[in-house]
Amino acid sequence: MGLKFAEFELDNIQKIQINCRIFKIRVVSCQSGKLELSWIDTSTRSLTAEQRNNELIITDNAAVALYGTLRLIDLKRDAQLLIKVPENYQGIITLQSNEEKIHLTDVKTNGNIGVASNTGEIILENVETKVIDIRGNHGKINCLAIKATEKIDISSQNGSIDCCINDREENYTIYCKTQNRRCNFPECKGDGDKKLCITSKLGNISVKFQGGNLARNTSNRYNRRNSFKDW
């Protein structure tokens, strides 16, 4: 029990899969070539990391169904998983939670980043990678100064989406799909090499590019599974 640390060599790891029900997830970059984890174990909760072939799977463990509301609050007290990702990592990183916040700050990699949550807030600040895929349900999605070399895909069921892209609008082909066809954003816009797809069913969407010009505010649809089994 107490504060725990773990390091993992990533030479043979093509995918890092993190799935937490109890822990908030915080991700930053690091200069070392290893994945670094830190968290606090207690008598009622723990974290496990297991390598399966070329995948590293990280999950938290607690008998959530046995706890009432007050005990559940106590169970989640100080429950944060800090993840430091090497900047030279070229694989896939997926981060999933049910109710807890997922927060990425100053993250730069050469691979794919996928983030999904049911009701927890998703925050990305100064994140740059090849592909960014965010899948929300009822929680807010806030992105500040994100950039992808290939594709940004953000979707939500009911939560609002606020996104500032650290790039020029003309670099993107922008796609916006609506359920009821009432949308002030054209279904297809631009012809840039990069792809930007923003969809939501009931939540408001605000998109800004590097120049600070508001691209559109709209309400759209979401029709994807809140997981990364398709990755």
Summarize the structure.
This protein has 231 residues and is mostly beta strands.
What would you call the structural class?
mainly beta
Number of domains: 2
Major sheet attributes: 18 strands, mixed
Please write the string of helix (H) and strand (E) elements. EEEEEEHEEEEEEEEEEEE
Radius of gyration: 18 Å
What's the overall average pLDDT, rounded? 82
Structure description:
This protein is mainly beta. It has two domains: 1-100, no CATH class; 106-224, no CATH class. The chain has one helix spanning 69-75; strands spanning 2-9, 15-20, 24-30, 34-41, 46-52, 55-61, 80-86, 92-97, 102-108, 112-117, 122-135, 141-156, 161-165, 172-175, 188-189, 194-200, 204-208, 214-219. The protein has an 18-stranded mixed beta sheet that branches. β17 (204-208) and β18 (214-219) form a beta hairpin.
